[in-house]
Design a protein that fits this description.
about 300 residues; eight-stranded mixed β-sheet; two-stranded parallel ribbon; 11 helices; about 20% strand
Length: about 300
């Protein structure tokens, strides 16, 4: 694993910690020999032990499409209200990893600073299940929040979806499914360094930053693993291949030094062409996962 600590040649912001990269790590091998699954198990144990005094943290389950109970965490502000605005947070991790401590910290931060409820589902992962199953898990979190809004203390008129990295792709998928099914009212979608396209090789940022934090090789393994069981509808799995009309307004935040930058911009452009209101905010000098550096003045600004 020494290659994770390759010397970085990119001009990262001095306001951020110097990141590490997956570099030349053979992630395909790690998937095949079970190392990735063991790592996922370790992450789950860390999440189970997570505690905070800043907000109210609860754990529960909701039913997915097949009746499977899916664990989720709810973060509620200490200030008591009858109804709260809500964020449904689809976490990143290459579709392969479960919730990590960083995502729990982010949920606490959004909850505390914005006074909103945050719902964080532990959807099934691609090491064990199909992409269609994962997307349905994510959609049914949305469905659960809207159908139980009164009991959950949620203002149905102020709900948005949020996703980072692979979670950004899942948030995109959920907005499409929602449009084509119940069409619950979503105020918006926030996509931070989102995954948008399985044909990543056509974007210049992939070659320009192939050894950055989220590497070209890691990205290839992610898509190979996510799609290996096939899909009934590729347009939901890879949202940039879809008709993007009639979707909620989007805030899209690509990072400047990230292989995913150009595909996020391309997704934003396609949303705009479909008549969707979009704000794009490329953070100079930033990298994939930069927002885990909570002490950074740059992270605090954005």
């Amino acid at each position: 694993m020494e290659s994770m600590f390759l010397r970085q040649k990119y001009n990262y912001s001095k306001e951020l910690k110097r990141p590490i990269t997956f570099g030349n790590v053979d992630m395909n091998k790690a998937v095949e020999n079970g190392a990735m699954l063991k790592c996922a198990g370790f992450m789950r144990k860390q999440t189970e032990r997570y505690k905070t005094k800043k907000v109210q943290l609860e754990k529960d389950e909701y039913p997915s499409f097949d009746g499977k109970g899916i664990k989720f965490f709810t973060f509620t502000p200490k200030e008591k209200k009858e109804k709260y605005p809500a964020m449904i947070y689809y976490h990143g991790g290459g579709f392969m990893f479960p919730i990590q401590k960083f995502m729990m910290n982010s949920s606490v931060s959004y909850c505390e600073r914005l006074g909103i409820k945050v719902f964080l589902p532990e959807y099934r992962i691609s090491l064990e299940d199909s992409c269609d199953t994962i997307i349905e898990d994510c959609y049914h979190m949305l469905k659960y929040v809207f159908e139980n809004a009164e009991r959950l203390g949620v203002d149905k008129g102020r709900v948005l979806v949020y996703g980072d990295s692979a979670g950004g792709c899942l948030a995109e998928s959920v907005t499409l499914l929602n449009r084509d099914r119940e069409n619950y009212h979503l105020r918006g979608q926030m996509l931070v360094y989102p995954v948008c396209d399985n044909e990543s090789e056509k974007y210049a940022s992939v070659k320009n930053y192939k050894d950055a934090v989220w590497s070209e090789k890691a990205n290839e393994t992610m898509w190979k693993t996510y799609l290996k069981r096939g899909t009934k509808n590729i347009a939901y799995v890879v949202p940039i291949k879809s008709d993007l009309k009639n979707l909620p307004p989007a805030y899209i935040e690509p990072q400047e030094i990230d292989i995913l930058r150009d595909e996020a911009v391309a997704y934003a452009d396609k949303l705009k062409a479909a008549g969707v209101a979009v704000e794009v905010n490329i953070i100079p000098g930033s990298y994939h996962g930069f927002d885990s550096d909570f002490r950074s003045s740059l992270v605090k600004q954005v």
